[in-house]
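new request in #modeling-help
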Amino acid sequence: MVSLSNSLSFISSPLDQFEIRTLLSLDAPILANMEITVTNIGFYLIVGVSIAFILNGLATNYYQITIYATIHSIVVNQINRTKGQIYFPFIFSLFIFILVNNLIGMIPYGFASTSHFVLTFSISFTIVLGATILGLQKHGLEFFSLFVPAGCPLALLPLLVLVEFLSYVSRNVSLGLRLAANIVAGHLLLHILSSLTYNIMTSGFIFFFMALLPLSFVIAFSGLELAIAFIQSQVFVVLTCSYIKDALELH
Amino acid sequence: MSFIAKRGISTLIPPKVASPAGLGAAKDAVRMSRVVDFYTKLPKGPAPPRKTPGLLGGYQDKYFGKKASGMPIVHVIVGIMAIGYAQAYYFHIRHHKNNAH
């Protein structure tokens, strides 16, 4: 029993992997004592953006054709065949950014930047705010007709406008929450499962072979997480497109 | 025989145009030999692939384009694992070397 409790206590907190640590800090009395710090999330974001840039510069054919065509078809189908093209560079870079950061999180000892709500919320709030500004710029005050469902009775109008407004505002949260929650949940699951498997495997000769079954689950879930990394970035981009379309065409 | 007499005979006898020694010796033999020399010095075989300029040009030639491979992904994974392990070691692992949590 003692050995069991000893070995179980080896499980570190599964939230440990998301901890933000300071790597480089400038602590000098300059610029109004502003603290300039590079944390691990900042570092991994720099790495991710560098990888995206270098890959884009070096790739000559296959990589670009497949991802390019996929994102292009999303933009064309979701927004508009003619008016949507102008948003393609934004959507493409958004997709690559989220995808690369998701995949960096999948590398052992890596860091999942997209598991942090501060990052995903700042992206999603910016996108919805930008789409709102776009709609106001395009349609003026007519933009607010977005909150009025077509053919609704006048008596229900105040309630429906409130509901529509709430649903519009909640896009801010839902867009960012979906991405970060998926990544956090996946990483937590993998960490807990693999810690348990490790503890089982190291507790005895027979247990080593018994733990091959949970190990296969861990491997299977890793594959699932890899798929989620792609799916979530695609979902994020599709929803961004549909929000832009809403602002452009007002239902 | 006097010079004048010789001259007289030479006009009578046709000049020796085709001698066995002078058979292959064309008038522009020197020029031809230079041309042959030039072409033998030219590089033979298919042209070597052109090197891409730039900081990562060599890397691009090696793993992208015609010789596309998955190796860049492996390099990124190894690099990030190394950086990540260094961080994990500094912040976490070294504190638990001999004593578990």
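bot summary: The mean pLDDT of chain B is 78.
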